[in-house]
């Protein structure tokens, strides 16, 4: 009976802790969205250009022949212009939402609007994450000390990257940097974060 009580107490504490993280993350997500919303269009474009340049100077980027990027939502770093250029010299891939997971598809110039209004490659070859040398990851917030990431709450990237040793670079606006992000066991950290 005492063992069952102890288990129930541990489960209760764990659930309370998870709820606290969940609430903290919800508040943080709203805050980060507000910060980005305050940035003007010209500022976003200038920062995206700086990040593209910093990526090109990055040794992991230089060494990678296959890179998983992302096609940006309006509040994300916009590398679309550079992705089109990089696709001429590297194997470029984009994530596609399939049910509750991300699959990796080869970049195509022709794209269609998929789930969550994200542009996705059309009739594209699907590859396994093991074939990717580098993953460039978006986020609503990043900790530039621990490289923890705050996503949108669906866990797509955490599921995709959880059992992989692939090198991960998070990219964001400097306004999205946050000290001591609340971290849960399933949260996947980046290897580094590039921001401007």
Short description:
The chain starts with a helix and ends with a strand.
Using brief descriptors, characterize the structure shown.
196 residues; alpha/beta; 7-stranded mixed beta sheet; two-stranded antiparallel ribbon; 5 helices; 36% helix; globular
Give me the secondary-structure topology.
Blueprint: H1 2-37, H2 41-57, H3 59-63, E1 66-68, H4 80-86, E2 91-98, E3 101-106, E4 111-113, E5 119-121, E6 126-127, E7 134-137, E8 141-142, E9 149-150, H5 156-161, E10 167-172, E11 192-195
Parallel strand pairs: 1-2, 1-7, 7-10, 10-11
Antiparallel strand pairs: 2-3, 3-6, 4-5, 8-9
Fraction of residues in helix: 25-40%
Alpha-carbon distance between the termini?
A: 57 Å
Q: What is the string of SSEs from the N terminus onward?
A: HHHEHEEEEEEEEHEE
Provide mean pLDDT, rounded.
89
| Rg result | 18 Å
Fraction in beta strands: 15-25%
Number of helices: 5
Characterize the main sheet: 7 strands, mixed
Structural class: alpha/beta
Strand order of the largest sheet: 6-3-2-1-7-10-11
Notes on the protein architecture:
By secondary structure, this protein is α/β, with parallel strands linked by helices. It is 36% helix and 22% strand. The chain contains five helices and eleven strands; from the N terminus they run αααβαββββββββαββ. It has helices spanning 2-37, 41-57, 59-63, 80-86, 156-161; strands spanning 66-68, 91-98, 101-106, 111-113, 119-121, 126-127, 134-137, 141-142, 149-150, 167-172, 192-195. A seven-stranded mixed β-sheet has the order 6-3-2-1-7-10-11. A two-stranded antiparallel sheet has the order 4-5. A two-stranded antiparallel sheet has the order 8-9. It is globular and about 40 Å long. The model is unreliable at 4-21 (pLDDT under 50).
């Amino acid at each position: 009976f005492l063992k069952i009580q102890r288990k129930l107490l541990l489960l209760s504490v764990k659930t309370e802790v998870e709820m606290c993280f969940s609430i903290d993350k919800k508040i943080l997500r709203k805050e980060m969205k507000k910060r980005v919303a305050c940035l003007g269009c010209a500022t976003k474009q200038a920062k995206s250009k700086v990040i593209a340049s910093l990526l090109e100077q990055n040794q992991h980027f230089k060494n990678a022949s296959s890179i998983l990027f992302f096609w940006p939502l309006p509040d994300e770093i916009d590398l679309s212009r550079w992705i089109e250029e990089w696709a001429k010299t590297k194997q470029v891939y984009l994530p596609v939402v399939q049910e509750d997971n991300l699959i990796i598809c080869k970049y195509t110039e022709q794209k269609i609007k998929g789930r969550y209004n994200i542009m996705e490659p059309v009739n594209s070859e699907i590859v396994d994450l093991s074939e990717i040398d580098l993953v460039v990851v978006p986020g609503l917030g990043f900790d530039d000390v621990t490289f923890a990431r705050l996503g949108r709450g669906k866990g797509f990237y955490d599921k995709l990257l959880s059992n992989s040793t692939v090198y991960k670079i998070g990219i964001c606006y400097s306004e999205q940097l946050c000290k001591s992000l609340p971290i849960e066991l399933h949260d996947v950290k980046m290897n580094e974060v590039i921001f401007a």
